[in-house]
Amino acid sequence: MQVRPVSRDDFDQWLPLWDGYNAFYGREADTALPRAITDVLWERFFDPNEPVHGLVAADGDRLVGLAHYLFHRNTTQMNLSCYMQDLFTSPGVRGQGIGRSLIEGVYLAADAAGSGRVYWHTQDTNEAGRRLYDKMAEHAGFIVYVRAG
Asked: Which domains does the chain possess?
């Protein structure tokens, strides 16, 4: 298994992973994201002026996971922060260390960019994910508020 940056040739295998991630969070069928959002996200990965990046986990020629992250400034430190916005592994390969490898890939990218701070959110009901996250990072105790729009 290899973790690497997403490439243009990955789209056909990346898309079902992206759709699976969105379905996990209830964005499917009538509540699915508009295709235009997916298309814009995909293009952002390849625009050097964008702070959004994508990693994929490949088992041979088959993609089995994804991680999307972005860098941003913040008010409490000089270096950029790294926000891992999306993490997903195919249901059939969970428990094999793919999620851990993707998080480690984001950590490596953050370190290379001079960003020691990596953070992410998840639902409190994501018990399997939280078991992994508790081993990989510190739960900071924050509650997230969102204005949808």
From this structure: 2-136 (3.40.630.30)
**Closest alpha carbon to 71 in 84, 61, 81:** 81
CB 89 within 8 A of CB 65: yes
The total of other beta-carbon atoms located within 10 Å of residue 61's CB is: 6
Q: How far apart are the first and last CA of the chain?
A: 38
Confidence of residue 148 (pLDDT cuts 50, 70, 90): confident
Supply the pTM of this predicted model. Answer: 0.94
Kindly indicate the confidence band of residue 143, based on its pLDDT and cuts at 50, 70 and 90: confident
- Picking from 69, 63, 113, 118, the residue whose alpha carbon sits closest to that of residue 90 is 63
Q: Is 130 exposed, middle or buried (0-12, 13-18, 19+ CB in 10 A)?
A: middle
